[in-house]
Amino acid sequence: MDIQTTWDKLKTDMKAAAAELGIDKIGIASVEPFTELKQRLLRHRELGYESGFEEPDLNKRTEPALLFDNPQSIIAIAIAYPSKLQDPPKSEPGARRGILARSAWGEDYHTVLRDRLARLEAWLIERVPSCRVLSMVDTGALSDRAVAQRAGIGWSGSNCAIITPEWGSWVYLGEMITNLPLPPDKPVTESCGECTACIDACPTDALVAPGQLNSQRCISFVTQTKGVVTDELMRKIGNRLYGCDTCQVVCPENKGKNWTHQPELQPDNEKAKPLLVPLLTIGNRAFKDIYGSTSSAWRGRKPIQRNAIIALGNFKDASAIPALTGVLREDPRFELRATAAWSLGRIGGDTALAALEQALASERDAVVQEALHTALSSLNAAESR
Ligand code: B12
Ligand code: SF4
Ligand code: SF4
Questions:
Q1: Best of 220, 242, 245, 307 to mutate for ligand 2, by most ligand atoms within 8 A of CB?
Q2: What Gene3D superfamilies does the entry give (predicted)?
Q3: Which among 166, 186, 252, 296 would be 20 to 30 A from 7, CA to CA?
């Protein structure tokens, strides 16, 4: 067998072994620098569209040779995840619930993909003992989507997601740079065509053009921040506690697609759609016990608690007033007190008004004082109308 045939055969065998390794799709990308992506990332930065969660070094992001000695190919993988809850609990008056994005259902996908990449590495080393690899998922320097696109995993959708012809966009992505000269795959030829459903459905117009996201306006990003959110964005967060799936839910390529075969990724309804009020007072330890194994915990409990407060305001459910008043009086974190003031103002009514006035008498933090004044003036204006 000539050398080329050897690597072709290894690639074919590896793809045939994918399912047994727990991997849903494998593609091979070349290690050429991602030159166009670099220009794109530069422009993205200039426009202020970055989230701040990306690797800041654009050379490292786009040149595999800076990350690995003498790279020869990149193996990209995709793992499909569920998009539907079975018999989800209802969100009802007096028992309102929030929702975690699908990417936070089940066990943390970083753990699951690292496990699959480790299995693939063992499989490769068994066949090629001199094989070297560098694996990454999400937190690595490379753009997982750009690698997946080049490797033929899927196309880059107008909602920014990699959309696979087989699994839709409900896939997590990971990759390994290797010293094996595996022949590259071709990018897929499908595209979004004339569709604009995701751009039309985005609640904040964060998709400023097809495939171009202003992260600062993306609800997924906002739910992962720790500070006080603007009135406009709080209203648009709805009851999302972590992440946002709207631009994928509306995508026709995802219609009817719900993947239940990856055991670790299956959701627990009570975690995916939790009651809001208990989240307001959850302690650090309990939070870690419940959410520590999911991908929603990486920023700690504060963003999720803040989002739970926002959700209660958006539901305008008066039964949440005592719990929100408790936050306003007792929570040591000013961001949560300011958000509780907003929520009480949004719910309105005499009890909420009294709680806001009482808090103003003792509040010492300037940000919370301002939130209290804003909430009170909007309530007073509503009353005099
Ligand atoms: C930072 C980040 C975010 C930020 C910014 C997202 C963004 N769109 O840039 C925030 C917090 C908002 C976010 C949200 C989400 N994220 Co995120 N995120 C990342 C991270 C760490 C880096 C992304 C990045 O560099 N963005 C900068 C943009 C400019 O580059 P890019 O998207 O990587 O590359 C594409 C563009 O440059 C484009 N492009 C290049 N040239 C050109 C030219 C033209 C003309 C056009 C139109 C496009 C184009 O094509 C590239 C490939 O698609 C990656 C992991 C990683 N290391 O790559 C995960 C990742 C992209 N996230 C992921 C997920 C699942 C999500 C959410 C769905 C989570 C949720 N449910 O809330 C949302 C989706 C939001 C959205 N519509 O994109 C997955 C995506 C899986 C998939 N099927 O695509 C990734 C790959 C993590 C993983 N390993 O699975 N995320
Ligand atoms: S994740 Fe939500 S906010 Fe972000 S682009 Fe998609 S629909 Fe818009
Ligand atoms: S909703 Fe339409 S435009 Fe958006 S990603 Fe899906 S197919 Fe593409």
A1: 220
A2: 3.30.70.20, Leucine-rich Repeat Variant
A3: 166
62: left (phi over 0), alpha (psi -120 to 50) or beta: alpha
User: Is residue 329 included in any domain, yes or no?
Assistant: no
Beta carbons of 320 and 347 less than 8 angstroms apart? yes
- Classify residue 140: in a domain, yes or no: yes
pLDDT digits (tens, 9 = 90+) for 296-318: 999 999 999 999 999 999 999 99
- Which residue range is the domain that position 124 belongs to? 3-93+100-178
Cα of 31 from ligand 1 centre, angstroms: 20
Residue 1 has pLDDT above 70, yes or no: no
Please name the residue whose Cα sits nearest to atom 1 of ligand 3. 251
- Percent of the chain beyond pLDDT 70? 100
The verdict on residue 43 lying in a domain is: yes
CA distance linking residue 17 with residue 5, whole number of Å: 18
pLDDT digits 0-9 by tens, 120-147: 999 999 999 999 999 999 999 999 999 9
In terms of Cα–Cα distance, which of 225, 179, 222, 144 is closest to 65? 179
Q: How far is the CA of 224 from the centre of ligand 1 (A)?
A: 15
Among the bound ligands, name the one nearest to the CA of residue 211: 1
By most ligand atoms within 8 Å of CB, the mutation choice from 196, 202, 254, 257 for ligand 3 is 196
Residue 276 in any domain: the answer is no
What tokens appear for 84 in the block?
Answer: 């539907």
In angstroms, what is the span from residue 243 Cα to ligand 1's centroid?
A: 13
Ligand nearest to the CA of 154: 1
DSSP character string of 167-191: TBT-EEEEEEEESS-PPPPPPP---
Q: Is the CB of 244 under 6 A from ligand 2?
A: yes
Interval between CA 4 and ligand 1 midpoint (Å): 34
Q: What is the pLDDT of residue 50?
A: 98
Q: What is the mean pLDDT of the chain?
A: 97
Q: How many structural domains compose the chain? A: 1
pLDDT score for 382: 82
Structural contact between residues 68 and 180, judged by C-beta atoms closer than 8 angstroms: no
